[in-house]
TrEMBL record:
Record-annotated membrane-spanning stretches: 20-39
Pfam families from the UniProt entry: DivIC
Lineage summary: Bacteria, Candidatus Nomuraibacteriota
Official protein name in the record: Cell division protein FtsL
Domain of life assignment: Bacteria
Protein species of origin: Candidatus Nomurabacteria bacterium RIFOXYC2_FULL_36_19
Coiled-coil intervals: 41-68
This protein's UniProt keywords: Coiled coil, Membrane, Transmembrane, Transmembrane helix
Length: 125
């Protein structure tokens, strides 16, 4: 009988209000920690995606630069690079330079800037 009362004594202590309040607070603290951990995990996943995109971008740039380097190791690649940078031509070739006409861009702008009276003055000219 004493062992039964002893077991029941522990049950009474575990089911008392102060112990239950303490356990409730402890569960709340753990739940709050789990929620905070989930938020940090989401931000970590987003940061990982950003880092992977940067790695892919840098890998593409590395491939582009390595092809440029391998191209510059050949004579034709060096010649092409010099032509692009300095606008040079071989003997017997000519270089064409295209220049935009700045006056043609101003004409439509001037025609649209007139008002009601300028329409009549231009009409009678």
């Amino acid at each position: 009988m004493k062992s039964f009362q002893k077991k029941r004594g522990w049950r009474n202590i575990m089911q008392s209000k102060p112990v239950l309040v303490f356990l409730g607070i402890l569960v709340f603290i753990f739940a709050w920690g789990v929620v905070g951990f989930m938020g940090k995990m989401q931000s970590t996943i987003e940061n990982r995606k950003i880092a992977e995109e940067k790695v892919l971008e840098l890998q593409k740039e590395k491939d582009k630069l390595s092809t440029g380097i391998s191209k510059l190791k050949t004579d034709s690649g060096v010649e092409e690079s010099i032509r692009e940078k300095f606008g040079l031509a071989k003997d017997g070739e000519g270089v064409i330079i295209v220049v935009e006409d700045k006056n043609s861009a101003k004409v439509p702008a001037e025609a649209n800037t007139g008002g009601f009276f300028s329409f009549f003055t231009n009409w009678f000219k």
